[in-house]
Amino acid sequence: MSNVKLAARVTAIVGTIVAMALVLLLTPGFLRPSVAFAECTVPEGSEIVYKMVGAQYSVSGITGIRANLWNYNPAPVYKATGFWVMLTDGSNYAQTGWWEYDGITGAKEYVWSQYSWNGGGNWETKWYNTSTALWQDTPHTEPPSSKEYSTMFVPLQGEYNQAQMQYDGGTTRNVSITWTPTKWQSFGETLNYDTPNKGDHVPGDTTNKIHGDNVMYRDSSYSWQSASMSNYKEGHGDVELIYQGFRIWDTRCSE
Q1: Which backbone phi and psi does 15 adopt, to 5 degrees?
Q2: What's the confidence (pLDDT) of residue 40?
């Protein structure tokens, strides 16, 4: 997936959350809380930058990926960060994960899913509400914790293939797709949107690394297998592979 396409979809996600936060900021009597955060020296600049770090692997006939994705909390002030599991053919994708926003309303974690078509040029995002067990159009706050996230693929459900996205064993979001995945990915990412924009950093830091564990993939026979993985990192993100999982952090950040 190109950084341009990634930037576009992330901007759409964060834009929705920021709009909600600004409503609260303008509410009479609203006070911005004091939030503790990890120190992180990042370069200032005029452009928002996106970097990713995590694990991935190409698997012939893959039909699913799942993992427990741990949260790093509290989130740094004026940041938004995400962590997800994804199936992709290199251009299109289907993914499920958490998104945490901070800065005006305090740390808020959301569960979201997203899939794309047209080579990743078009996408649709939904947010999970555990109270109603429904995927909805607006973010719904979820408690920060470690939960299982999964994205699955079922070929030829009628005229189309199907992607299935699920959070913590809840209601599955089923969408029709025309592509077939060839790889799983599990990445973390942070977007800075303050003025001036201060580059980016990935979730976690050198002393508190967030991680994914119990990473499993589903084979062509729909059986779950322990996932082989290789690391992926760019910018200042770093990765440590562990048994059935991985840790990610930003080398510039410390508690």
Answers
A1: -60, -40
A2: 59
- pTM beyond 0.70, yes or no: yes
Residue entry with tokens 């649709």 = 124
SS3 (DSSP) at 91: coil
At 90, the pLDDT band (50, 70, 90 cuts) reads: very high
Is 219:106 a contact under the CB 8 Å cutoff? no
Helices vs strands, H then E, count in the chain: 1, 19
What's the token pair of residue 132?
Answer: 């109603």
Gap between the Cα atoms of 128 and 132, Å rounded: 9
How many angstroms separate the Cα of 245 from the Cα of each of 55, 57, 82, 179, 212? 8, 12, 17, 27, 5
191-194: long-range contacts, CB 8 A cutoff, minimum separation 24: 191/10, 191/11, 191/14, 191/48, 191/50, 191/79, 191/80, 191/81, 192/42, 192/48, 192/49, 192/78, 192/79, 193/14, 193/18, 193/48, 193/78, 193/80, 194/78, 194/103
Q: How far apart are the two ends of the chain, measured CA to CA in Å? A: 32
Angle value at C-alpha 100, between 183 and 125, nearest 5 degrees: 55
Where do we find the tokens 């562990």? 242
Domains and CATH numbers, the chain: 3-254 (2.60.120)
- Sequence-distant (6+) residues with CB within 8 A of 216 are 65, 66, 67, 224, 225, 226, 227, 244
Cα separation, 127 vs 132, whole angstroms? 12
Residue given tokens 């994914």 in the structure block: 212
Place of tokens 């029709």: 176
Backbone φ and ψ of 170, nearest 5°:
-85, -160
